[in-house]
Specification:
246 residues; alpha/beta; Spore Coat Polysaccharide Biosynthesis Protein SpsA, Chain A; ten-stranded mixed beta sheet; two-stranded antiparallel ribbon; 25% helix
């Protein structure tokens, strides 16, 4: 069981890839086999003893809040981080929710459109064992943008395959080794000490934050290539999800 750890589900996005559903509904309430993505991820966190959950809202925020209230949080205690004035991206959303998360030593952050069978206990244990600032679930799969790691699984940079742009802010951690590219799965375990290290404001992404911090801090990749993980961001992915997640 995960002790003294909260969950944060990112549900504020516009979900443009999931149109036409998101013309009238939030992405978080897209349904897979009778359950919304939000419900599925609340119940996923419950499997690992995580029942204190923050959900951020922006797009059709009222629908998400109504669903949570109607279903009594599906058995979890859910707090709302309200971004209705402006969607703040992943990093900005985290910073806005600081007061809701700061009492927890660590917390799990995940995108609402990710479905997975990853054993969170293994990810959390790896995070604690390494005394990491953040531990990111990553996998060997094809994507257009990769996180780059050294042989010790420490984050050193980022690469865009399409544009060939590469950033190596922690190049000294590589030594003579070649960077190892892995795809990020949208699930992280983060120490609440990160809040005192954030020097961004407004809108910013978690990836930009990690690249800003990785030279001076331990940000680790946890390879879960053998697990099932599905980005349910597009309509065709809903059909795939219904085959994989009952």
């Amino acid at each position: 069981m995960a002790e003294n750890i909260a969950g944060f589900i990112l549900a504020a996005g516009l979900g443009t890839r999931l149109k036409p559903w998101t013309d009238h509904h939030p992405k978080a309430l897209a349904v897979v086999n009778g359950k919304s993505l939000l419900q599925r991820n609340v119940e996923y966190l419950q499997k690992f003893g995580i029942t204190d959950v923050v959900v951020n809202v922006h797009h059709f925020a009222d629908q998400i809040i109504e669903a949570i209230e109607t279903h009594k949080g599906w058995g979890s205690h859910i707090s709302i981080s309200d971004e209705t004035d402006m969607v703040l991206e992943t990093g900005g959303g985290l910073l806005k929710a600081r007061d809701l998360l700061a009492d927890d030593e660590n917390f799990v952050l995940m995108n609402c459109d990710i479905l997975t069978n990853l054993d969170l206990n293994l990810l959390i244990n790896q995070h604690r064992k390494n005394h990491a600032l953040a531990t990111l679930a990553v996998a060997k799969r094809e994507t257009s943008r990769y996180l780059l790691f050294n042989p010790n699984h420490e984050l050193v940079g980022w690469k865009n395959i399409k544009t060939e742009e590469i950033k190596l802010p922690a190049k000294e951690k590589l030594g003579n080794a070649s960077p190892i590219p892995l795809a990020f799965s949208g699930i992280h375990v983060i120490s609440s000490s990160i809040f005192d290290k954030i020097n961004f404001t407004g809108k910013f992404s978690m990836i930009d934050l990690y690249l800003n911090l990785c030279a001076e801090n331990k940000i680790i990749g946890y390879d879960h290539s053998n697990d099932l993980v599905l980005d349910v961001g597009k309509p065709e992915a809903i059909l795939r999800a219904e085959e994989l997640f009952m």
